[in-house]
């Protein structure tokens, strides 16, 4: 019988030992303890094993190696500028057609006022996404960035999923799904104020699932192109995986493997400068024991020229009001297991987020003990999915987030979008440098 001993952290001493009840995963335990990359077959086994608590303990081990006893939250606001969309993805309950009841698009003035109000309330980030609006011109999007920059220069703008960027490349006639067109659009948006890209629109990287559930949307290769172009322009991005609908568990593991390879590519040069021990195929593992990292374990965005994936955000499919609402959606334990496996497989992404809006704060809190180091932020308005609510007003106050983190046994740290700690006095804040 093998045991998993969790290491001590700065502020708390942990000596949890978990018995491994499934001998098939003992070699995975060994690999994680030694800081070796898990294979696709290992990932599939982590889904098969009934020993879910060893899976969660291993994810907790690597999460504590990287982030000790810290768990992050931020003070942010989401803006969904329009729900009008040219596509009709079957898992989506958000989109409307142009003249359908409930269709909307926000004016630039409305967005300006939202930015002013977010800045006054002390938010550090605006998270902006919407549908693929068939009629709004490209200037609407650059103007949106510019007015936010003018009115609220400190607010970080994290905006537009990869599928929206490709849509903007089309409407601005910069080339149809061509790399240079995508890059030109990203450059224009960056010049206008864009700070980073969210991770949405990835769904599951599999052609069968794509054709059945979101035909018309970009495929994996194009999604990766957008993120690669953003990284080349020095923009950090996030990555998601929407699971629990018509895909198989093996599809999820392949999705993680594809993301991991792309991140190796983004981090390779940096890792060499840090003398990080590279593994076969130049794999960059950030989740190993301390001795593998003579210098920095994690990239510091402040002195990193190009961008990389910051965070993996596993998103459960929520069936209500979608075209495939007859499907049950994933259970709580499946959500927990998927988050833990994401943490273990994506050994080169610095962060793993339990997005409370889609899991509830209660489950996000449990996820903090199973691999997550971030529960996202105060949100305020969110129209894409609604759990336990029919309203777009979905707000957590800072006290709720801090309490959830503390009760999970971690120290809450407010972060900015790039995971730099924030020092705050009421609604006034600043980034803490070199921490
Ligand atoms: S998921 Fe995005 S692209 Fe698909 S229908 Fe919904 S808003 Fe449109």
Key features of this structure:
TIM Barrel; globular; alpha/beta; 4-stranded parallel beta sheet; 3-stranded parallel beta sheet; 435 residues
**Overall geometric form:** globular
The CATH top-level class label:
Alpha Beta
Give the helix level as a range of percent: 25-40%
The set of bound ligands, ions and cofactors reads:
iron/sulfur cluster
Separation, N- and C-terminal Cα atoms: 40 Å
The CATH topology is what?
TIM Barrel
Overall strand count: 16
> Which structural class is indicated by helix and strand composition?
alpha/beta
How would you write the strand order of the largest sheet? 7-8-9-10
Taken in chain order, the helices and strands follow as: EEHHHEEHEHEHHEHHEHEHEHHEEEHEEE
Query: What is the residue-mean pLDDT, rounded to a whole number?
Result: 90
User: Any idea what the CATH superfamily is called?
Assistant: Aldolase class I
CATH architecture designation: Alpha-Beta Barrel
Low-confidence stretches: 1-16
Give the amount of beta strand, in percent: 15-25%
Q: Give the number of domains.
A: 1
Helix count, DSSP H or I runs of 4 or more residues: 14
Instruction: Return Rg in Å.
Output: 21 Å
Sheet of most strands:
4 strands, parallel
Furnish the topology, listing elements before pairings.
Blueprint: E1 3-5, E2 17-19, H1 26-34, H2 40-48, H3 52-67, E3 70-74, E4 76-80, H4 108-120, E5 125-129, H5 138-151, E6 156-159, H6 162-171, H7 179-192, E7 196-197, H8 207-213, H9 220-232, E8 236-243, H10 249-273, E9 309-316, H11 332-345, E10 351-352, H12 356-359, H13 361-367, E11 374-377, E12 379-381, E13 393-395, H14 398-407, E14 411-414, E15 422-425, E16 428-431
Parallel strand pairs: 3-11, 3-14, 4-5, 5-6, 7-8, 8-9, 9-10
Antiparallel strand pairs: 1-2, 12-13, 15-16
Helix pairs in contact: 2-10, 2-11, 3-11, 4-5, 6-7, 6-9, 7-9, 13-14
